[in-house]
Amino acid sequence: MRTRRRTLAPALLLPLALLVSACSGSSSADDSSGGLGDSTDGKGELTLNVGDQKGGAEAVLRAAGELDDLDYKIKWSTFTSGPPLLEAINAKAVDLGSVGNTPPVFAAGAGSKITVVAASHGDSAGEAVLVPVDSPLKKPEQLKGRSVAVAQGSSAHYQLVAALKKAGLTLDDIKVSYLQPADALAAFTSGKVDAWAVWDPYTSQILGSKKGRVLTDGNGSVNGLSFQVAAPGALADKEKSAAIKDILERLRRAQDWVFEHPEEWAKAWAKETGLPYEVALASVKRTNGTRVSVAIDENVITSEQAIADTFTELKLIPKKIDFAQYVDDRFNGDLPPSTTEPRSYGKSS
């Protein structure tokens, strides 16, 4: 198994291009459209249209036993990433979906009709700038003049900007290659770029295959948030709003189950996505399983506003937005504040 990991070919990593796990809180800017997925039968007549990503909400809910005894039906549509999922919400084709911390900002900047209704906070160790194992780069300051691959509009995009700022650099100081994960992976493993800003499970895949190491990660630089986003029209519908409240509660319980059963979830996740089990488990313990459900509060709004303002200043978002106008805290209940520390499996994990 050790030899297989060392010689893992890029082709074996390509299934990960389908992944932007709801639990990881990370999302790419892939413009691929969604496809029809499965349906989950419930007892009632109402159908809730839920946008999902491979190995995301449906997989974790099913593994945790949270799709039993539904009083409504769920029609799943699968997307490769957050941005097209939010486009579907804006088009009223989807009622609810999971994305990372950056896609809602870009959607808001585009004038999309979306509403953030739930949040979770996880460890940001999986948000990383990776370099090859034999790279001479030892600290972020040394990225000056180097080429870095990143998916435009992704959570990794903001993490890269934040890492550069912390090192006294800007995007103008590096050579940015805007590449989606599959292309970025090929460029990274072939030496065509000096570094790759990406998220888990890609981070765990590269580390597990011994093809790279972490130059810097998102801890201390990014907010570690991910969101459930709903269509305003669905929230205005009494029955759909009740169904959204129910599925949010089920997702919170499922996330608790993931933390308590990392090996079981890693096996299910690996089967669902094609990830090697070892990579899935590493990603669960580094990022995926650390998430804790938190309230949508002033800190969420402030930290997301900072992301929006950053991309507005970079002229990647056409106009200044007021992120507070895109949130609804009606489902907060007694959830802890968004500053609540992520869960941890300990240093030995």
**Strand adjacency order, main sheet:** 1-3-2-4-11-5-12
Instruction: Return the CATH architecture of the largest domain.
Output: 3-Layer(aba) Sandwich
Query: How many strands?
Result: 12
Shape: globular
The number of helical elements comes to: 13
Question: Which runs of at least 5 residues are low in confidence (pLDDT < 50)?
Answer: 1-36
Helix content: 25-40%
Radius of gyration, in angstroms, nearest whole number: 19 Å
Report the sheet with the most strands, covering strand number, pairing sense and barrel closure. Answer: 7 strands, mixed
Q: Which structural class is indicated by helix and strand composition?
A: alpha/beta
Question: Overall pLDDT, averaged?
Answer: 87
CATH C-level name of the largest domain: Alpha Beta
Determine the N-to-C terminus distance: 19 Å
**Strand/helix succession:** HHEEHEHEHEEEHEHEHEEHHHHEH
Question: Features of this protein?
Answer:
single chain; 349 residues; alpha/beta; D-Maltodextrin-Binding Protein, domain 2; seven-stranded mixed beta sheet; five-stranded mixed beta sheet; 18% strand; disordered N terminus
